Structure formats: structure tokens, C-alpha cells
Amino acid sequence: MNQRLWISTLAAWTLTTLIGLPRAVAAEVTAIAFGDLYDFSDGGKPFAACKTGKEAYFQDISGDTWYSAWGADDTAWINHDDGLGFNNAGGLFARHRLCRLIGDPNLATDTFLGENLNPGTMGKTLPHFQFGGDRAYTSSIAEIDGVLYLFLHDWTPKVLWPPINGLIIKSSDGGKTWVNHLGGTGTIPEVKDAMFPKAPWSFLKFIQYGKGGATPQRDNLDKYVYLATGNNFLARVPRAKLPALNKADFEFYRGGELDGLLDASWSRDPEGSGPGGKSGGFGLGNISYNEALQTYVFAGHSSYLPPGQNVDLNTVAKSRLVISVAPHPWGPWRPLVRQAYCGSLSWPSLLCNKFTMSDGLKMWHALCGGWKGDLVNYGLQYTPMYFSTGRMEQLEAEQGVLHGTSAAHSYPSFSGTGYVGGFARPGDGVNFQTGNVHGEGWHIVRLHYTSPAINRATLSVYVNGKKVRRVRLSLNNCDGPPEESWTDCSAIYYLRDGLNRIELRRDDGDQAEGVLVDYIAVSAEPTYNEGLNLAWMATATSSSGQADDAIKGYVDGRREWIAAGGAGEWLQLTWITPQTLQKAVLYDRSDRNMQVLGGTLSFSDGSSVKVGKLQNDGEAGTVVNFPKRRVSWVKFLVDSIKPGTTQSGLGEIEVR
Question: How distant is the alpha carbon of residue 396 from its chain centre?
Fold first, then answer.
């Protein structure tokens, strides 16, 4: 079968359609973790690294917001604000733009691409796309019953926050022609005619469901379309009346813990409505319904701001992705993870359900670098998000086996009887013994920690005696709300059935001064199956350099296969007995001056697979899926390199 045809067939099989009859009650989601952070900014830069001057600024920014929706014809719509969009260096810098995503990150990240549509290949008919001023920025996108909708807002002049003057425009021809709520074509009404003049209702976002807006039979979804601001303020409009864009048709959830199925829980007066649930708030982020898990997922955001560094929140803030779940759009919401990053991120959202796996255990989270941030490029970033249900085992650090570390209890808001600190020297650590996990495979392990002394601290993680990860830990302290005194680093780990040993250890090269560990929480039930990495079972050889450094089993930016030259260098993995393979994950070297732009995977059966550009920081592995084959060796050949690359190589290679 043709490789691309095979990929399309696999995509159709794996991705949920989000329609059908009601299912039995699903198990409660109890854990969420994140994978690699992929950079889709197409040459963008962190905001703080942009060239100065207006024209130079326009050359470096790919854009922000990046909300998406799944069209009935399988289009993955996505919008952006303030940027160049996709593959558009030197092109039109737009206030907002309609785009589409091409490919599937579950199958191949090197062919997951984007296209600018309007302004772009469709023309320049999107109202108010020209950059400048505070009007007509995007809050949300949706396709429902064949009509494409954009929710727009203005920014408050001079101070930006809060967003004001919300309204909806629609397109019945796939984004070419746009009509506003007053019936005008290609225009934005005057401020006085806004549908939702005041926050929070001026910042509503469509809750995302299935293909073309298809919904399951629950929550009155046959009657209503829901929109939300954060996960606290909820509105609805009769589905049949949405195309009329009549603000009088909208109702607002009255808040508290009222049953949203009852009409009495809704009001036509926005002033007396909201908030809903018990957590979350008015801000960035969106809600998507995970049909397989029968769970609403909210992508929230907060930041840790170091004391005395409040001149510009976005420059120095350390971001937290706060993910909550609920059984209904109106809640009640349960926060499950507060994933910490070492720099400023912004505009969190969930990629449309086209990319959600059929078992619901893997979704995708989108975001961008922070405004004036100094770490992540100011353009589309995306990361896999993993789910688990069933029992979680919380293992207190102070009850683990300590090596060079010590238990303490002076830092506030800890769990159990204390926590562990003192990772002062290589070898210092804490060892945990899990209870029984159910089934060999990938499980979620959430590290609950704080790092009051340094940002980008690191610890090494060992599973059953083998080093499998080097985690990076964000600056965090107890000078904010008590619930933010500790934060999380949640990831997936390959565990064996039954008992497992998990160790957090300071290794050579790690920086862990002041790091405190409260506990780890381990999911007994597996998450999405990414496959067992078979690379470490192979013998590695190469054209030059230390081949074994590419199959150590983790990425650390230190031990890498560093070849003597550029294009033409190769690395081969050979097994004593044949192995069945269907996926490769390739990490580039961490040196941004050295990049592989293309390569070839060849196999002992005579077949081969092309590999595209590797991410130029070694932070995320390029995923390449292919039809299963049983082989005794696989060889990666570097075909092309970034100009100036004198020593190509890999930070790590995985084959599954």
C-alpha cells in the first residue's frame, strides 16, 4: 500500500468521530501528563529576542491565539492573531487570519503543516485583518452545521485587558465571505453595536465537540450550542437559531452548582449570571469535550511571578498549564495538574478533536510563547496531553528511601508529614516503591515539587534501575496563594506490570540546589500506548562519533551522537533477532547551529522512509510512523543539513 494512503487509512481508524449513541458511564479521569513541546513557529523567535523597530518586529512574529475547529469536510481550521502565520516570512503581518492545519501530529510531526487562507490563498476578504489598533481580535472559532463562526473582541484601549465588545461573524462558503450579526458583509460593526459589550461575555469561546460540530446525546446538545469564558462563565444559544446571530437568543448560566439541564438555571440577563463550578476563572483557555472519556477538558493558565520582578509579567513569569475536567459544561470542575514551565507561555487551548485519539487517552494542547517572553518562540507550539483513569497512588517523598537527602517540614502546604530536600551532590536522591500497576506500558507519573532557589533546575529519573528521563524544574516559591506553593512535572513512563521502583536522583550535570519534592503520584491504569522503545536493545554503529550516545534512553542535551561531518553521516541500529517496527522518534542535537533538515530511514528488508526537518533545539522528537515491518536493522542517513552545520548527529533516536 502507498505510504501516504496507509497513513490516511490509519488516521481514519484512530481518530474519533465524536458521534453516536450514548455510552455507558466512563471511568473518571484521574491523571493528566504532557509530552514534548513542538515548535510550529516557522522561524519565529521568542518575543524578547525579536529585532527592534516596527518593520523588523513584523519579520519575527508568527502569531498568537491559535484556536482550532474540526470541519465537516475534515478541515482542521485554525486562526491566529498578530503575526505572519505559516511559511510567510516577509509576507503580510495580519491582525487576525484564518488558516488550516495539514497532516496529523500523531502520525508524523515533520509533515504536520499549516496554510494561510484568509488573508492568504483565499484572498483578503476577512474583515479587519489589517494590523493596527485594538479592534477585532479572535476569541474562538467553530464550524457548526456547515457554517464557520469566529468570535471577535476588542482590547481595552491602552491597557488591553479586559477584552471588550464581543461579537460573532459567520461564513457559509468556507471562509471566503463573512457576514456580521447586523447582516453586513466584509465589515465589523461599530463599537456601539457590539453583541456582548462587557467582560466576561465579550471573551466567549465555543466549546469544541466533533467533526463539523457533531455532538453526543447529552447535556441538551441537540438543542443548544455552548460558549464559555474560562470554565466559570457559560452561555448557550439554541442551535437552530445560532446562524441568526441574534444576541437576544443567548442565555447565561446563573452559576453556583445549578443543574444546567434545567431552564431555570439560565438567565437572559448577563449581569446576574456566572460564575459556574468551583474552580477556574475568567481568562485564557478553552474547553473541549473528550467523547471517549465522556469528559469536558479545560485548558487553563496561570503564572508564577518572582517577587520584585513585576515590571513586565510576561518577561519574567514562569507559566503553568492548569488542566481541569468536568462531567458537564457547567462543571463541577476538578483541577488535575498544574504543569510548570521555565519561561513564559500564553494563549493555551486544546487542538480540535480531529487529533484526539479514538480511546480518548491522548489529546493535543496548543499555545504560543509569552508576550515579551524570552524562552519560547512567539508562534504556534503544540504538545501531546495524556490521560489516565482509575486508581492513583500517591507516594510521599519523606516515606521513601533517602540517599544523601533529608526530610523536612518548614516549607508550607506540603502533603503528608513533610517533604524531601538536600539534592546537594551527585548521587543524592529519593527512591519510591510503587504498588501494583495494571499492565506493562505507559503510565502517568506526576512529580509534585517546588524550586525556590533556581529556575531550570534538573533531576534525573530512574525506573527499575535504568535512567529514562531528565526533568527540568521551574522556579516556584510560597509567596503566592497556598495552592500554588507547589507545582507539577507530569509525564509518561514505561512501567512493568506489578511493582516498580522510581528514583529521583541528582546526576552529574544536574542542577538541583534548593529543589524540594513533596510526592509522586502514579497511575495504576495505563495511558495511551506509544509503544516500547526498542532502540536501547540494539547495537549502535555509526559513520563517525559515539553511536551509543544516541540510544541511552533519554534526552539531556549533553550526551549526543556527534558526527564528524554533515550530510552523508549515518547511524545504524542492529538487533540479534528481528524486531517489528512501526514508528521512529528522532531528536536533533541541542546545538541550534547544527540541524538536520532531512534524512532517510532504511531497513534490512530493503524498504525506506523519508524523514523531514528535525526540530532545531533537541527538545522534541520528530515522529515518523510507517507500515509495520519486521527487520534486523534500521539505518538513519543524514541527507541534508542547515547551512553552517559542521557536525550533524542526533540527541537521541527511539524506534517502536
Answer: 28
